[in-house]
């Protein structure tokens, strides 16, 4: 399976918006900057990361690991 393809049930919520450790939005704004956790639609939370681009990278890795486990 090619890397970075869609995986049903695994969407990065709000393009990498920061969430707190309980999975709630960390701020009332829509900026993806700042510290927080990435949240996948499957419920997985990333470690605390300091940018939306790092949360997006975490999500790519999360999906790649799931794809590998299905082989």
pLDDT averaged over residues = 87
Uncertain runs with pLDDT below 50, 5 residues or more?
none
* DSSP strand count: 0
Query: How much beta, percentage-wise?
Result: under 5%
The ordered string of helix (H) and strand (E) elements is H
Q: What's the helix count?
A: 1
Tell me the count of domains: 1
Helix content: 25-40%
Described by the principal axes of the CA atoms, the overall outline is elongated
Major sheet? none
Structural account:
The chain is an all-alpha fold and 71 residues long. It has one domain. It has 1 helix and no strands. The chain is elongated and about 40 Å long. The termini are close together.
List the helices and strands and how they pair.
Elements: H1 52-69
């Amino acid at each position: 399976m090619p890397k970075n393809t869609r995986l049903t049930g695994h969407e990065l919520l709000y393009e990498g918006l920061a969430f707190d450790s309980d999975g709630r939005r960390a701020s009332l704004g829509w900026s993806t900057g700042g510290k927080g956790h990435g949240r996948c639609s499957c419920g997985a939370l990333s470690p605390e990361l300091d940018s939306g681009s790092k949360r997006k990278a975490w999500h790519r890795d999360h999906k790649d690991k799931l794809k590998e486990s299905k082989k």
